Amino acid sequence: MGSTFPGATGLSEISIYDWPGADGAAGGSPHVHTASTEAYVVLAGAGRLETLDSRGFTTTALEPGVVLWFTPGTVHRAINDSGDLKILVVMQNAGLPEHGDAVMTFPPEHLTDPAAYRRAAVLEQTDADTGLAAAEEAARRRRDLALEGYLALKDAVLESGPAALAGFHAAAARLASARAGAWAGLLAAGAARQAEVTRRQLVSLDTAESIYLANARTTMGKRENRRIYGMCGRIQAWELSDN
User: Which homologous superfamily does the CATH classification assign to the domain defined by 7-238?
Assistant: First the structure.
């Protein structure tokens, strides 16, 4: 990867799963991000975003043109009502989500032990468009397990309010803590580095210095030639080239 996307964000296109869950609604694996804000730009289809956060349970309609974002700690579930819901995801701190920033809402017994969580969470990086039944079944099992825990958590929030999230948040933080030390390097190479570049540019502009503008360039994003099974759906990502 030649450079990072503006703001050290990550960019991906997600086709939300159309697999019905235990409650009859189709969608992906509910989860939470522990250190990154996530944004949705709805491209096609129709659905809903269910969230559990400091306001309790909320649901937001998703249709083309809708833009929304949610901060770390927001348990979220994308629901695909139309069967063709497609979302452009802009993720803060590119690299952190790929290195374990997300924690799925598995039942509590899968959250107390990192090894048990990994066994339930990890999927092989299989092409999601090959029609390989075993790969899809594995992704569906993971989604169903996350949905099982989510529905219980949702009921608890509806009954007791946002305080019911405390146990899950604590478990998510414990799981993330083993990896958090390595994330400092990702932050330094990404968002912190870009902020420092901007700071230096402002110093230059303060004295009407324009030399850095001569280094202007255009970078092309290369669309990957396969989709993979993600938490919410089939993911199409881009790599950045040096062109």
Answer: Jelly Rolls (2.60.120.10)
